[in-house]
Amino acid sequence: MKISITTDLSVFSQCADLMAGQDPWLRMGIGFEDCLEGFMGDWREVRVAEADDTGKIAGFMILQSQSTFRLYVQTLCIAPDSQRMGLGKAP
Question: Could you give the CA distance from residue 2 to residue 53 in angstroms, rounded to a whole number?
Fold first, then answer.
């Protein structure tokens, strides 16, 4: 598993698509455009986990990188096929 910080808009788009297709976003009716908006802003830091063998996005988190809540986890999303595989334990 490779975890890295990204500012790549195409990666943000892939992540927003992942979010919009699963709960709780799906249940709340939050679509792709609203999910994508969550990645925007200078005060956000996006870390993406990619599968070693395929480079496929296994999950990501959006952190607030400024203010009183510095490094507060705003969003955490794991692809369904990557859940329960120890991603939360990755260094």
Answer: 10
